Amino acid sequence: MFIIGKNNMSKNKFSKYFIFVTILTFFVIFVLIIQEAYTKQVDQINQVKQDQSLKDFDPNLDMDAIKDIIKRENI
Amino acid sequence: MLAKSKPPVKPPVSPATSPKAPSPAKQPVPAKKEPTKSAEDRESFLSFMKKKQEDRRFIKSLEVGFTFILISLLSIFAIRPAIITITNLTGEIKAKKLLNQKLDSKLRKIIEAQNNFAQIQDYYEIIEKTFPSSPQYSHATNQIQSASQVSNLSLDKITFNFPKEDTKQNTPTTDIQQYSINSSIQTDFYPAVDFLNKITQNRRLIDITSVSMNIAKRRSSSSEKETPSQINFNFNTNVYYWKK
């Protein structure tokens, strides 16, 4: 334990540390809130992007294969 | 707190200014002692002021610190839920917009594919014969039988091999199914080649996986000589179908 204004820690030093710690705490909390908000926003967009049922497909048919089939004879 | 606090230091009162003080003419004060006393008083006054200033600074820093703590607490309990709700809603809006775009493009492609399928509707029957939606074992057998008859081969025996259930379960990703048909016959060389040609040109998808031809050495009963015109012809095919 330190005693303010006595031998261990001066009032001046304590006030400096105190302000530093509080500013740091505030900064950390601010960053955490921003990070959490950003993650939640990005997650929702990623869910849509990664949806397998929404993946693109090629609507064009391979007509060459069909032409090749038609050319073949049916025994 | 107030009771324990130190009494304010009184500023030094010079004997010259005091009304009750005797006149300097009657009782002369030594000239050497006066400056030392006033210096001491000034020093104590300065230290008092310094302490006061330090206290004021300390209180100010405490105020600033507690303000930051208060802002932090406010951020956690009031601003955080609001910000998260706002970002959730904006994220949802963006996701819905993206979803709308994707669904639009998919719908356009489905319509395009539907038109393409409509164009090849006449060929459905041919495609079904090529790649049926069921095994159609009899159809495959008839195809092989017909090919052999056209090529002057007489197949005595046709063997079907079906994949085991456990191997089917191991490959669930593909919809293409298959079974194999194999046969062996003693025939001439050219009919065998013609048969293979017919199978490869056939409309039904039959994949020839292996073919083996060996000269059949058969002794004729009259001359006791070998007649190498005949061959042992073995073939193995895979027949494909579409699993619905």
Could you give a quick summary of the protein structure above?
Chain A is mostly helical and 75 residues long.
Helix count from the secondary structure assignment of chain A? 2
Average pLDDT of chain B, rounded to a whole number, is: 80
Say what the CATH topology of the largest domain in chain B is.
Alpha-Beta Plaits
Order of strands, main sheet of chain B, comes to 1-2-4-3
Helicity of chain A, as a percent range: 55-70%
- For the record, the CATH class of the largest domain in chain B is Alpha Beta
Q: Based on helices, strands and strand pairing, what is the structural class of chain B? A: alpha+beta
- In terms of DSSP E residues, the strand content of chain A is under 5%
- H/E element order of chain B: HHHEHEHEE
Tell the overall outline of chain A: rod-shaped
User: In terms of per-residue confidence, which ranges of chain B show pLDDT below 50 for 5 or more consecutive residues?
Assistant: 1-25
* SSE order of chain A, one letter for each helix or strand: HH
- Helical percentage of chain B: 40-55%
Distance between the termini of chain A: 100 Å
